[in-house]
Amino acid sequence: MRKHFYDDKQFDYRDYWRNRKYEDWCEKKVLKEFFSLVNQQLPLQEAQLCEIGSGFGRLAWVYLPLVKRAFLLEPAAKLRRLAKKELKEFSNFSFIAEPVETAVLKKETFDIVLMVRVLHHLSSPSLVFKKVFSSLKPGGYFILEFPNKLHLKNWHRLFKDPKIFLSLTREDRRSPKNRNAQSIPFFNYHPRWVTKELKKTGFLIEKKVSVSNCRSPFLKKLLPLSWLKFLERLLRPLFSLLNWGPSIFVLCKKPDY
Ligand SMILES: C[S@@+](CC[C@H](N)C(=O)[O-])C[C@H]1O[C@@H](n2cnc3c(N)ncnc32)[C@H](O)[C@@H]1O
Fold it and tell me: Which domains are delineated in the chain?
C-alpha cells in the first residue's frame, strides 16, 4: 500500500462522508447494537478497545463514551491530527501510529477490536485476523466490517462470468491502470470466505448483519433519510440472510475456554 494515500494533501477523507449520512447512520446503528450485545457479556465501562484504521475518529463517537480506554490505530498522520482535533472532548484514548501489519499488539490486551472499512485495503487479511485474535483477551470480541462481493447490485455479473462472481476469491476493484501504478488495494470479499477464515483463526461468529442495504444513488436521491432508515430496518433481516447488502458487519468472539 502507498502509505500516503490518506495523507495526500489533495484528499480529505471527511469529504467522502459529507453526502453519506444514510450509510453513517446505518453503520453507527449496527455498532451500537453490537456494543449493547457485548455489554451483556463484559462490562464496557471496564473495557479496553482498539480500533484498527480509525481514520478521523468518525466511529470513536460511538465507543469513547462507553469504554474505559481506546487505542486508535491509524497509520495516516493527517487523519490522526484530525481525530485529535475532532475528539478533543474525550481523554480516554491514545494513538498507535502504525499500519496493523507492523504494529506491536501485545498478547491478550484488548477486550474489543474494531475494524470498519479497512479490510478492503489489506493485502494479507488472514495474517491480520491472527494478529487480532492474539491481541484479544479470552472472551474478547472482534467487530469486523467488509465490502461484500455478492452485493445485490453486482448480481448481473452472475450472467457474465458466474465462476468468477461466485468464487470465494476476493475481487480487486482497482482499474488495470491503478493496479499497475500499485495504488492502494481495494478488495471486495465473498462473505463465506471471510466467515471461513475467521473460524479457521479460532473465532466464533455470533452475528452477521447486512448494512446500508439501500445504498443506491437512485434511491438516495428519491427518498428522504427518514424513509431510507425505515427501509433499512425492513430489509435488514432478509438481506442479512442472503448476504445482499454492500457492507457486512460481523460480531465474533474469541472463546474463553
Ligand atoms: C476507508 S478509511 C476508514 C476509516 C474509519 N474506519 C471509518 O470507517 O471512518 C480506511 C482507514 O484505514 C486505514 N488503513 C489503511 N491501511 C491500513 C493498514 N494497513 N493498517 C491500519 N490502518 C490502515 C487508513 O489510513 C484509513 O484511516
Answer: 3-253 (3.40.50.150)
Secondary structure of the chain in HEC code, one letter for each residue: CCHHHHHCCCCCHHHHHHCCHHHHHHHHHHHHHHHHHHHCCCCHHHCEEEEECCCCCCCHHHHCCCCCEEEEECCCHHHHHHHHHHCCCCCCEEEECCCCCCCCCCCCCEEEEEECCCHHHCCCHHHHHHHHHHHEEEEEEEEEEEEECCCHHHCCHHHHCHHHHHCCCCEECCCHHHHHCCCCCCEEECHHHHHHHHHHHCCEEEEEEEECCCCCHHHHHHCCHHHHHHHHHHHHHHHHHHCCCCEEEEEEECCCC
Give the Å distance between the CA of 16 and the centre of ligand 1.
Answer: 13
Residues within a 6 A CB radius of ligand 1: 1, 6, 52-55, 58-59, 73-76, 79, 99-101, 116-118, 121-122
- The pTM assigned to this predicted structure is 0.94
Nearest CA to ligand 1 atom 25: 76
What number does the ligand 1 atom closest to the CA of 99 have? 20
Sequential pLDDT tens for the chain (257 residues):
455 689 888 888 999 999 899 999 999 999 999 999 999 999 999 999 999 999 999 999 999 999 999 999 999 999 999 999 999 999 999 999 999 999 999 999 999 999 999 999 999 999 999 999 999 999 999 999 999 999 898 888 888 888 888 899 998 888 888 877 777 888 999 999 999 999 999 999 999 999 999 999 999 999 999 999 999 999 999 999 999 999 999 999 999 97
State which ligand 1 atom lies nearest to the alpha carbon of 100: 20
